[in-house]
Design the sequence.
């Protein structure tokens, strides 16, 4: 029997997969988008090399991992009947981590998040009916809380169907939570809602650069259009992954829903910019909240331009609502379970930003060290890029 994990080629999913491999003995059934077995293995190696060296990875691949080459948006993930039956028969629990984070695309969020989660819930249903499912865990987001301003939101007060959402991503993730609860009422479920997941508190290296790019852009500005005392809820990926794994593996977690966030321990813009300025030996920026509207207009305009500035502006445009809402997410449930709070962003932000800038916002991936005949690294990267489509 195995844990079925979606999204293992992604940032959080790879952290979860590697932690399960390192600290637990379960087998893993991994859903991976790829045309061939070799491409699937290479895509996993890309995602996991931040955590495992190649011999460890290869050993896990041979002894603990079953790859199911499939897509969330296909019926039965596009698996043939024998593969799907095998997947149902061997799945003892589910961690559904995959999603489209393309906040601009209704279509992508509808297909990957809604139709995809329906497929995963149906798999959970079939596994539960066949032999009992130990747990269905779902990685959601604090964005399900919708429009907020100057609030501390608790897990149970987060979803309010009368509130508007900032984007299709938040709207579809909110319905995903509802759908799983409705379809699997008799299954033990856990909902994880991370806040802004940014960097790893243990090391500067990262493979996900979207938010980092937006932060580097902001950090370079002499004037910021924010209120300096507003808080921003950021959580490191290592805390998110450790919490997901610990609670998924726990026989009886105390709650169904957990915010994986910094909560009232979230830091202010002022604190973060002070740390960054001090570490880099630079002047601190000025704060001018009245500029927010003009700033948003400039960001909108720049987001249509090409090159790195256009890309950063485009990212900032989608993240902007989450930067100015001054809303944080109560995290006493996860602190009680984990026995500790996440590291504050100021403790590890400078090395993260420096690593990202020095590596031009790309991770220096190591190629698959296999013999000739394996897909070459540049071809594998192209396959990854084309499989990811337009996700920002
Ligand atoms: N990152 C954050 O700040 C943050 C904050 C709150 C919540 N979350 C939640 O955390 C989870 C993971 O996010 P992440 O940051 O790790 O995202 P990510 O790096 O973009 O990874 C997304 C994963 O989903 C997979 N996926 C997308 N479409 C798929 C499809 N049609 N079929 C199969 N797999 C598909 C991707 O596979 P490919 O590699 O093939 O593209 C990838 O493995 C998501 O549920 C997200 O909502 C993230």
Sequence:
């Amino acid at each position: 029997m195995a844990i079925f994990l979606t999204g293992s080629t992604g940032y959080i999913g790879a952290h979860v997969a590697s932690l399960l491999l390192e600290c637990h003995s379960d087998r893993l059934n991994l859903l991976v988008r790829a045309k061939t077995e070799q491409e699937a293995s290479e895509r996993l190696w890309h995602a996991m090399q931040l955590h495992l060296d190649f011999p460890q990875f290869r050993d896990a691949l041979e002894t603990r991992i079953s790859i199911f080459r499939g897509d969330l948006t296909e019926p039965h993930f596009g698996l043939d009947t024998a593969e799907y039956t095998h997947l149902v028969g061997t799945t003892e629990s589910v961690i559904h981590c995959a999603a489209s984070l393309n906040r601009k695309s209704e279509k992508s969020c509808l297909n990957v998040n809604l139709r995809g989660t329906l497929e995963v819930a149906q798999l959970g249903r079939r596994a539960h009916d066949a032999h009992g499912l130990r747990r269905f865990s779902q990685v959601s987001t604090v964005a399900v809380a919708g429009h907020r301003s100057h609030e501390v939101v608790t897990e149970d007060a987060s979803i309010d169907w009368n509130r508007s959402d900032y984007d299709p991503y938040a709207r579809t993730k909110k319905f995903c939570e509802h759908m799983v609860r409705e379809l699997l009422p008799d299954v033990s479920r856990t909902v994880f809602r991370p806040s802004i997941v940014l960097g790893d508190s243990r090391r500067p290296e990262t493979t996900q650069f979207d938010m980092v790019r937006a932060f580097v852009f902001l950090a370079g500005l002499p004037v910021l259009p924010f209120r300096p005392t507003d808080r921003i809820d950021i959580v490191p990926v290592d805390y998110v992954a450790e919490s997901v794994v610990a609670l998924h593996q726990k026989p009886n977690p105390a709650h169904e829903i957990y915010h994986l966030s910094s909560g009232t321990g979230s830091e202010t813009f002022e604190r973060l910019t002070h740390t960054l300025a001090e570490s880099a030996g630079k002047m601190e920026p000025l704060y001018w909240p009245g500029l927010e509207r003009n700033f948003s207009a400039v960001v909108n305009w720049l987001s249509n331009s090409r090159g790195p500035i256009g890309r950063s502006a485009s990212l900032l445009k989608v993240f902007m609502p989450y930067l100015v809402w001054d809303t944080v997410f109560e995290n006493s449930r996860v602190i009680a379970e984990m026995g500790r709070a996440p590291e504050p962003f100021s403790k590890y932000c400078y090395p993260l930003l420096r690593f990202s800038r020095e590596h031009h916002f790309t991770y220096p991936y190591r190629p698959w060290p296999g013999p000739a005949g394996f897909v070459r690294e540049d071809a594998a990267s192209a396959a990854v890029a084309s499989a990811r489509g337009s996700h920002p």
About this structure: Residues 6-7, 9-13, 31, 33, 71-73, 97-101, 112, 116, 139, 141, 173, 194, 196-197, 208, 387-388, 391 surround NAP (CB under 6 Å). The chain has 14 helices and 15 strands.
